[in-house]
Design goal:
alpha+beta; two-stranded antiparallel sheet; 7 helices; 14 strands; 33% strand
């Protein structure tokens, strides 16, 4: 349903909380930053991984020298080591691995209560590098995002479905009272009550649910690459990229995230190819060529609405299923109610 990344309050407040968690990253010493306003999704074991990715990227960008401000992030590779807690701030220690004329590299270690929970390597490349050769995959066909239901409309459809067990209705209504900072529109919808086996590929439009700081709305390329405003948009794209990937691996198996016991990112990589605004529609095509031993390998590509390929991503994640029931339906009311409540929290 695209409701994993929700916050209490209005949609504008949800977006503002995301932006402030980045731009208000506190520098408490040289190369040391403190991130707060961490958020744990309902039913999750720890804070949302996309937020940790985004904060670590922003911390790395804050350590660029004046001569490196013309460099923009071009790749990020990270590992999730332990679940994060929203009850403690995250400390980001940045190591300056390389300061070159064309490239700069930063190693970011994220800790909470003295334990490392996340590690990332971020590389920056000069935006003045000339382009002599270029090609890119074409954007796939997709329906207009404005014709697709948003999260509130998808939730209303679930609430109106007679297959929804009555004891789950209060939980679903509770989810509907929350807002997401990212507006996801799914081109390939899945019936959460009776999913059909599908190829492990999916198309999803997304954008920040409210305008972000930066260039004038409608400028698809966004702020000048390398500036703080452009990095903010890259951070929001990184934040959003952590959500749709793993669910793609479930499509061939007739199960949805609400039927799984656990889903968690293990590692995540992201490459930026061109600038983009995160508050303009972006098409995210995901695929999952392999799922074995509980580990799913997923890939994704992100296009601007004008057809420019702006980013690519890869992720391996852990999926542990509860095979007591493959499909939620009338029989679910006769099952373990606690297990149903846990699944509903991940709708």
């Amino acid at each position: 349903l695209g409701l994993t990344c929700t916050h209490r309050g209005s949609m504008a407040e949800a977006v503002q909380a995301l932006v402030e968690s980045l731009i208000r990253l506190e520098e408490i010493d040289k190369n040391l930053f403190r991130g707060s306003q961490l958020w744990t999704p309902d039913g999750a074991r720890g804070v949302f991984g996309g937020q940790i990715i985004a904060q670590s990227l922003f911390a790395a960008a804050r350590t660029r020298t004046e001569s490196e401000k013309a460099m923009a992030p071009h790749s990020l590779h990270c590992y999730f080591l332990l679940p994060g807690s929203s009850e403690s701030p995250a400390l980001y220690t940045v190591r300056r691995v390389r300061d070159g004329r064309s490239f700069a590299t930063r190693l970011v270690t994220t800790t909470q209560r003295g334990r490392p929970i996340f590690s990332s390597m971020v590389s920056f490349h000069s935006t003045r590098e000339p382009t002599t050769l270029e090609h890119a995959d074409a954007m796939p066909d997709a329906p207009d995002p404005d014709t697709l239901p948003n999260a509130s409309e998808r939730l209303a459809s679930v609430l109106a479905d007679p297959r929804l067990p009555e004891h789950l209705r209060p939980l679903v209504e509770h989810m509907g009272a929350q807002q997401t900072p990212i507006d996801f529109r799914y081109c390939d919808p899945v019936d959460v009550f009776s999913p059909e086996a599908m190829l492990p590929t999916r198309r999803t439009w997304f954008r920040a649910a409210q305008p972000l700081p930066g260039a004038d709305s409608g400028d698809l390329a966004g702020p000048e690459p390398g500036c703080d405003g452009a990095v903010l948009h890259q951070c929001v794209i990184a934040y959003a990229s952590d959500q749709p990937l793993l669910a793609t691996a479930l499509l061939p198996h007739r199960i949805t995230p609400m039927n799984t016991g656990m889903m968690a990112s293990l590692d995540h990589s992201l490459w930026w190819h061109a600038p983009a605004r995160a508050d303009e529609w972006l098409l995210f095509q995901t695929s999952a060529p392999r799922l074995v031993s509980g580990r799913a390998l997923c890939f994704g590509h992100v296009w601007r609405r004008d057809g420019v390929l702006v980013a690519s991503t890869a992720q391996e994640g852990l999926i542990r299923t509860k095979l007591l029931r493959r499909v939620a339906g009338p029989a679910s009311a006769r099952g373990d109610r606690a297990a149903d409540d846990d699944r509903a929290s991940r709708l």
